[in-house]
Design a protein that fits this description.
Layout: E1 5-6, H1 12-18, E2 25-32, E3 37-39, E4 48-49, H2 54-57, E5 61-66, H3 72-82, E6 86-89, H4 93-101, E7 108-112, E8 130-133
Parallel strand pairs: 1-2, 2-5, 5-6, 6-7, 7-8
Antiparallel strand pairs: 2-3, 3-4
């Protein structure tokens, strides 16, 4: 099965355009601005509140590139109730392993490239169903 994901869809104009396209999912960047979980790659630009915009995002399989630490469990808890189709990408290793320990590995995507050094035979990675292969060379 092939799933088409549009990369870095961090504003509503792009997302609304994708509603009428052939994309099954979108990749968004999320971070904390100390009060909210926001959608934005650049922390110094105008941002969208993730939770206030879930209705607009509902159609899509979400690939969530987490740019801040300490927010993945909060996002997970809300999305597990309200969205259903999502994966986390680029969690720092300690948060990644904590998600696995809490049996949340089904919503993780392991990034694998020449920069990451994972033993894919490790028992912790057995529950991960998605791998993002990045090729830089």
């Amino acid at each position: 099965m092939t799933i088409y994901i549009a990369h870095r869809q961090n504003n509503l104009k792009k997302v609304k355009y994708k509603h009428n396209s052939y994309f099954d999912g979108i990749e968004i960047d999320v971070r904390s601005d100390s009060k909210n979980i926001i959608i934005n790659h650049d922390p110094f630009k105008k941002s969208l509140n993730l939770f206030k915009n879930l209705k607009t995002l509902k159609k899509f399989f979400l690939i969530i590139d987490v740019k801040s630490t300490g927010v993945c469990h909060k996002i997970y808890n809300v999305l597990k109730k309200k969205h259903k189709k999502f994966l986390f990408l680029n969690l720092i290793q300690s948060e990644f392993l904590n998600m696995i320990q809490r049996k949340r590995g089904g919503n993780l995507m392991l990034r694998f490239s020449s920069y990451e050094n994972f033993n894919l035979n490790d028992k912790n990675f057995k529950m991960i169903k998605w791998i993002w292969f990045d090729f830089f060379r």
